[in-house]
Amino acid sequence: MPLGRTHVVVPHSPGHVYELDPHSQDREVLLTSEVFLFWKSEKEVICRYVTDGGGDEVILQSTMCARVELQSQSRYLLLPPQTLPDGKKDSSLNALTNADFIGLLGTIPFFANLPKDKLAVLTEMSTIRVYPSNSVIFREDEGISTQMFVTLAGSVEVTSSRATGPLATLEAGSFFGEMSLLINIPRAATVKALESCMLMSIEKKAFHSLLDQCPDVRLGVNKLLKERLLLKAILSGVLPFFDSIPSERMIRFSRELDIEDQVHKGDVVLRQQDENDPHEAKFVFVVYGAVEITSNHRKTSTFGHENTVFLTPGCYLGPFTFERMNVSTGKAFARSSAVLLTCSFKKVSELFEEYPAAGAAANIAWFGERCDFASVLRHGVLTQRFQTFLESEHSDENYLFFMEIEKFRVIEDDSERRVASNHIRERYIQSDAPKEVNLPAGIRDGILEKMDRLSPTGVMETTFFDEACDEIMRLMVKDSFPRFKKSLHFQNIVDTLDPHTNRKGSRLVAACHHFRDSLQVLRPGHVDMKHMQLERMMSTIQKSQARRNGPSGLTTPQ
Q1: For residues 460 and 454, is the Cβ–Cβ distance under 8 A?
Q2: Which residue of 97, 174, 219, 302 is most buried, as measured by CB atoms within 10 A?
Q3: Rounded CA separation 217/105 (Å)
Q4: What is the chain's alpha carbon radius of gyration, rounded to the nearest angstrom?
């Protein structure tokens, strides 16, 4: 007999016990032409139903619910468990075998630590869709993405309005959009079927309902999400000063990050601090949304001209941002809903202490004219530019002396170190030296006296010239370094580094687009499909469609 289509499903919420029609009994299975219903506990009810889409599309969709209401004029059939074939009392209506799907989902990193019983519930709530050739699965920027997809059969093409050609072609075994399950991000591209294809999708609400039941798994998923977001940013090129740091170290660094996904329009993201501010400075990376940096007070300087800056996905900010803009009392606030990765700026500084070359490049780019001298001396190109600048002023003796001391400090052989010390004395320290440096008389005389008293077998310590080197460094920082930072030798190099407050026109614009796209589809994963019984799955869909279109509207489960 034909069954009515009227039914209401109330979404499941933790702690909410479901309600059924009073005629139904515990552990019974309610079957209609529209809904297959079964449950496993007092708090889990699964509804599976079949509907028609455009063309040849057939949809099998499931959802977890807390209550089912049968309206008047609805007709339904109760199948007590004892009437079902042996071995199918709990799964006869679940013909797309959970065993196949559990194995499939278990190979996806975000689901790897879910217990099998929870994966089973997740597969019950998954959606299988068969799309005809050339049909659009979703469009770019059509709304917030709340699904991830697994390509079970066929292939799909990914395109974007920002690209002249296809971004990717995803074959059977690809999964994409897993970020959508955990953060609120829009569709970054358009995906359409190149041929008839079968996709499995999982809704964000379904996934989070399971995470609520598995706190340990939620922690693991959150850890993996932070790792993925950071590595996607580095691989996209939007964090250029982190790409020289080993990926293993960056994975450990990702554990220091926090995901802020409840940032609303108007929320303050970062404030410029003064020396009395008790709060820790933050490093902020924009995953999604827009951030505006503004101030009504700009310091007097020839470097930096903007009072307001807009940052979009792939951009970042920190205490250095306000310095770069030459502002005081600056603040950054969300211009829209946003998703951010944040951490203490102290953690970033500690990371750069481990990798001084990366830290030097970041310090120069972030602080511009306010960068420190040590960073310039660690930067290969700027070190050469600094020497060239000093040569043009005929004042390179201090820099050459510093470089000689750096070499002297790492000499391990005592006799070689003594030879090097005599060379330094004759070239830079004694009064008739060709490159005599301007040392105070006390320091100069002390060095000469100690060297004269040193016996032929005496040991020349690696720290012997430290006091003199510190004095020369102080002179360079005070005198030649400020002049160098105002020269084109310095400015031309800084302009080629990351202009993080204004990427318009820079090579990093494309990197930002690449990062945005990578959150959805540009880096699809792959799962092993060889054990999937796709023919049997397709047959099940065809039988469901036949049952839907059949004269009786109802068939006995096989």
Answers
A1: yes
A2: 174
A3: 15
A4: 33
How does DSSP assign 129-151, residue by residue? EEE-TT-EEE-TTSSEE-EEEEE
- Against a cut of 0.85, is the pTM above it? no
Tell me the C-alpha distance between 370 and 303, whole Å: 10
pLDDT at 59: 39
**Do 65 and 13 form a contact (C-beta atoms < 8 A)?**
no
Sketch out the chain's domains with CATH numbers: 1-94 (no CATH), 98-237 (2.60.120.10), 247-370 (2.60.120.10), 373-497 (1.10.167.10)
- Residue 329 pLDDT exceeds 80: yes
Which residue carries 């790897």 as its tokens? Answer: 112
Using the structure block, give the residue that is written with the tokens 């600056």. 330
| Residue linked to tokens 């060239």 | 388
What's the farthest any 2 CA atoms get from each other in the chain? 113
pLDDT (0 to 100) of residue 456: 80
Give which of 558, 554, 557, 543 is closest to 76, Cα–Cα: 554
Of residues 142 and 64, the one with the higher pLDDT is: 142
Per-residue model confidence (pLDDT) at position 125: 76
Separation of alpha carbons 198 and 151, rounded Å? 6
For residue 514, the SS3 value is helix
Of 252, 248, 253, which Cα lies nearest the Cα of 283? 253
Cα angle for residues 47, 134, 516 (degrees, 5° grid): 80
Tokens of 483: 């002049």
Ranges of H-type helices in 368-413: 373-378, 380-392, 397-409
Q: Mean pLDDT over all residues of the chain?
A: 76
Q: Which CA distances in Å does 533 have to 94, 141, 242, 501, 530?
A: 15, 34, 44, 52, 8
For residue 281, what is the DSSP state? Answer: P
Residue 434 Cα distances to 152, 176, 321, 442, 470, angstroms = 77, 67, 44, 20, 21
SS (H, E, C) 415-462: HHHHHHHHHHHHHHHCCCCCCCCCCCHHHHHHHHHHHHHCCCCCCCCC
Q: What are the structure tokens assigned to 106, written together?
A: 């278990």
The whole-angstrom separation of Cα 487 and Cα 490 is 6
